[in-house]
From TrEMBL, chains A, B, C:
Superkingdom in the source lineage: Bacteria
Name of this chain's protein: Trimeric intracellular cation channel family protein
Entry-linked Pfam families: Gly_transporter
Record localization: Cell membrane
Annotated membrane topology: Multi-pass membrane protein
Family, per entry: Belongs to the UPF0126 family.
All copies of domain Glycine transporter, residue ranges: 5-75, 92-161
Segments passing through the bilayer: 6-23, 30-50, 56-77, 89-109, 115-137, 149-166, 172-195
GO CC entries: plasma membrane
Amino acid sequence: MILNVLSIVGSVAFAASGAIVAMDEDYDIFGILVLGFITAFAGGMMRNLIVGIPVAAVWHQTGAFIAVLAALGITLVVPGRLLKWGWKLMVYFDALGLSTFAVEGALYAERIHVSAGTVMVAAAMTGAGGGVIRDLLAQRKPLILRSDTYAIWALLAGAVIGLRWVSPHVAWQVYVVLAGTFVLRVLSIVFHWHLPHVESPNRDKAQAVDK
Amino acid sequence: MILNVLSIVGSVAFAASGAIVAMDEDYDIFGILVLGFITAFAGGMMRNLIVGIPVAAVWHQTGAFIAVLAALGITLVVPGRLLKWGWKLMVYFDALGLSTFAVEGALYAERIHVSAGTVMVAAAMTGAGGGVIRDLLAQRKPLILRSDTYAIWALLAGAVIGLRWVSPHVAWQVYVVLAGTFVLRVLSIVFHWHLPHVESPNRDKAQAVDK
Amino acid sequence: MILNVLSIVGSVAFAASGAIVAMDEDYDIFGILVLGFITAFAGGMMRNLIVGIPVAAVWHQTGAFIAVLAALGITLVVPGRLLKWGWKLMVYFDALGLSTFAVEGALYAERIHVSAGTVMVAAAMTGAGGGVIRDLLAQRKPLILRSDTYAIWALLAGAVIGLRWVSPHVAWQVYVVLAGTFVLRVLSIVFHWHLPHVESPNRDKAQAVDK
């Protein structure tokens, strides 16, 4: 029940991030709606596809659909100046979305008895997959592949659930994972945590080929 | 029956648009064939995936496959100078493709008793999805997200069928929807209709992050 | 059995190509891992999706998963200077991956009695699909669509198996197809074979629209 509410909050935060990327790219209002919906729901679809749940199951989230539609409507009619004030809060909503989606994705996968590795991928897919599709549709290099610890926390939540370090059937333990993921995500923003990069063995050659 | 013929005409028009984008990007003849086939069939595949029909059902369209293969063969051997004359007609074939695919997608979705919202998405996916994949494979920002009313008419056709304003089982009503979609698409080209854009609350910041 | 071993070798070669592209794009270590895994496994997933095999079947390749994880781990810790020496061998491993994946994809498709055309697409998808997704996630124009004969040999292997010119149940005939694909791929690298390009009937106009 709480998970349902959080999932709707997360969908709305993800939809808002998609809408803002679309506005940044000067897409029209159709593009804004599409990127909003896709950022909110594509992660769950990809998880379903890869874990082996029917993709069409995504249509059962009626509550989230209505909330996303309402949020995108507000984004389109409220002047950008006012939305600016909401932007600072957005990263927290987005962190809430990430942690809720990751936990939700892990529980989905765990329920059909897949391996711990699959649970981790399902958590990362659900939490971060929508953002990757959003970036591709905006012709950007996916942010999470470049410089962010975003998906790491989703993988971690998946590991904790997939390896049964907590029981997926005990509500408070699930909420502890969710809260931990949220806190780690917020900390990683506050302290600008980044993952290391690696020098390519092949940089010059590859760029020459690319020209 | 008429729907089948129109669907083949639409597939060919979509394949031609894919082939032309591939030529514009200086892809080789394999790339031209791939973009042609993908533009013609990826929309239907994505619709199947999202609506819950087996994706492999796309292989049953033998007629459309042969027509697309023949059309792409012609595109490759006929000199570009001659094809140029066909280009002006192409937008009308493409509009025919959009309206046929949208109606077809809506009927597919309606047949398995999904909600009106799903029927709309299925119509838009079938009509416009192939073009989005085409643009991504050509590393372009998807045209329909930026400046075109393209997908709107597919959504509208989906709404009319999904909400049962017409009966999907009465042929002439289906053809009225198809013709209406076609006319609206052609009007939107002739009169340069565009959807509004929205100023981003976040433009400077987002571009700074992107650098 | 030999096919299993070759398939693991191919997965590792594909994963390495994904990791190197990620390094070239200055992605962080998460991006390197993601591109490595996706290049190795996305082709097979797309083949499953399109041929009608459950996508989740990809999770059964435990051996390949462990090998890819190990290879990516080595790529991350061994200094780029040393990896440079392996790079020249990489094209041969990659050619091995292409031919093994193509044959494997064709056999998968053939087993469920689809048409020869579907077998060809399955072979090309399995052999070249991962590379396309890799290029999209790195925001590059897919190499195989531009200037390489890469996927042609996979299509050819698919045709030979799909049209039953060899029996998919006689091991030595399958290995002949595999070896032939490998040799053709290596020859096409050594002699810089390219497919022809076609002048667009529409180049100036399309570029103007794109601006």
